[in-house]
Write a structure and sequence with these properties.
single chain; five-stranded antiparallel β-sheet; 43% helix; elongated
Length: 231
């Protein structure tokens, strides 16, 4: 049996798609413009459960603790749709950091807030903006809403180059050691070095399966899915 989707819910779904497009565009603009060096998409460093928040008479304001990075995440939304998304985290050399926070009201409208940055010297950010969905539907968000967040850490351009150079050097050493073992007619050692070399080559191929952009998209998609399917 088919169901008629209320007009507001259709609007919310379209609004989410539009906002996702904005979030993705913003995220891509923040990703380094250096030539991409492939890497496997990072797994979440930490993700929150979906949390239900009670009604509020004033601005929507939440503060979250990012335990694994000694960090904070904050969101403030006013009645006119203006918002401030901020956060901090400790330094992670050769790493990039991306975080997404989602708010969902009782009618199913979802708004995403997102940040990408270099964590080499620590993270400290504050983003401001204005969103028509929040302005027009502030009462429903203030009445009751849910939130969820997730962040990831992954190698930045410098980190990827460093790992690639280290692996290349190791492969060259293993190849030389295999050749030396064969000259000495030590077939057992030669086969051992050959197997180690093959393992390194396979690891390099595996590492070429993704990019920084894919990690950002994975974070956005994961958080959006979490709140969309949470009743």
């Amino acid at each position: 049996m088919s169901k008629v989707i209320p007009a507001f819910r259709r609007y919310c779904a379209l609004a989410l798609i539009a906002f996702l497009a904005i979030a993705v565009s913003s995220a891509m603009a923040q990703v380094s413009t250096n030539p991409p060096i492939a890497t496997v998409a990072a797994t979440p460093a930490e993700a929150s459960p979906v949390v239900s928040h009670p009604a509020t008479s004033g601005p929507i304001s939440h503060n979250y603790t990012l335990k694994n990075v000694d960090g904070k995440l904050n969101i403030l939304v006013d009645r006119d749709g203006t918002w401030n998304f901020s956060g901090s985290a400790k330094a992670f050399p050769y790493k990039d950091f991306d975080v997404t926070l989602a708010l969902k009201n009782t009618d199913g409208a979802v708004v995403l807030f997102q940040y990408v940055g270099d964590a080499t010297h620590g993270i400290e950010f504050s983003k401001q903006g204005k969103n028509d969905i929040l302005k027009e539907n502030f009462a429903s968000f203030a009445k009751s809403h849910k939130s969820a967040w997730e962040y990831r850490l992954y190698e930045n351009a410098a980190g990827k180059r460093r790992l690639y150079e280290e692996r290349l050097k190791k492969m060259e050493e293993l190849k030389k050691e295999e050749e030396e073992a064969r000259k000495l007619q030590n077939e057992a050692l030669a086969e051992e070095k050959k197997a180690a070399l093959k393992a390194e080559e396979q690891a390099e191929l595996k590492q070429s399966g993704g990019s920084s952009a894919s990690s950002v998209l994975n974070t956005i998609g994961s958080v959006a899915s979490a709140v969309l399917w949470f009743l």
